[in-house]
Design brief:
By secondary structure, this protein is α+β, with helices and mostly antiparallel strands. The chain has a domain of 99 residues. Helix content is 16%, strand content 39%. The strands form 3 sheets. Strands 3, 4, 6, 8, 9, 10, 11, 12, 13, 14, 15 and 16 form a 12-stranded mixed β-sheet that branches. A hairpin with a 6-residue loop joins strand 1 and strand 2. The longest helix is centred in the middle third of the chain and has 16 residues. It is globular and about 50 Å long.
Length: 241
């Protein structure tokens, strides 16, 4: 196939831009897909820390805003709404990556966090489940982030979950997985339906911070609710804020 000079120029430009796509930047922190875990395994699925949107950490919380989020021109109505939109878009982008097979999981232990009841009623981990990111090890655990876009799960108190993201702490010897649902979205309510979202941020010291968002027809708000740490011997501590 013959290449003309214009095509060659475009090809060179494309090759130049490829390295810059290996790290995601913008309103969030860098996700380093070239990182290694403690076993020295190099993979595009292994991410360095921090992991999550830096806006959550720099946001003065709690914060709120009035709906609608945008005016007739599609512009966000205030600073908090603008920041919330950036946070929401970051996690949507974060979850749009190719998945990979998880190691075999023999037993599952759900660690309840947050205010909702999904984590205690959700089905046991699928033995053929996948993950989106492998993070550095947390104590004795291999750490994976798993996203599920097709939850469509309704709890006994009629909360309808639309999507979720789990942090999976996997102990290779016992093949036990401890699951913390660090990201989710659900709707709840009767005549007035509210939308609830959970976000997370993992800092370079492996402290996991949980944030909860509530939106209804009139207003929205976000607050920091919990901090989670994992000790070197595998003890998981959850602190309510």
């Amino acid at each position: 196939m013959r290449l003309y000079s214009g095509n060659i120029l475009l090809l060179c430009l494309f090759m130049y831009l490829i390295p810059s796509c290996n790290k995601k930047k913008g309103n969030n922190l860098v996700i380093d897909h070239g990182a290694k875990n403690s076993q020295g395994i190099h993979s595009s699925f292994i991410s360095g820390l921090p992991f999550g949107s830096s806006i959550l950490i720099n946001f003065k919380l709690p914060a709120g805003w009035e709906d609608p989020l945008e005016d007739n021109s599609g512009n966000a109505t205030n600073l908090n709404a603008k920041q919330y939109r950036k946070i929401s878009m970051f996690y949507r982008t974060l979850n749009r990556v190719k998945s990979k097979q998880l190691p075999f999981i023999k037993t599952v232990k759900n660690i309840r966090i947050g205010k909702d009841s999904l984590i205690t009623q959700y089905k046991e981990q699928d033995r053929s489940a996948t993950f989106e990111y492998q993070l550095p090890d947390f104590g004795p655990y291999q750490c994976f982030y798993q996203y599920d876009a097709g939850v469509n799960f309704i709890t006994k108190d009629q909360r309808q979950y639309l999507q979720c993201g789990n942090l999976i702490l996997y102990e290779p010897k016992s093949k036990e997985a401890k699951i913390l649902q660090v990201y989710n979205e659900y709707i709840y309510g009767g005549e007035t339906v509210s939308n609830y979202q959970r976000y997370f941020y993992i800092d370079k010291n492996k402290k996991i911070t949980i944030f909860e968002v509530e939106l209804d027809e009139l207003e929205g708000g976000i607050e920091k609710t919990q901090e989670i740490t994992v000790s070197n011997d595998g003890l998981i501590k959850i602190k309510n804020l």
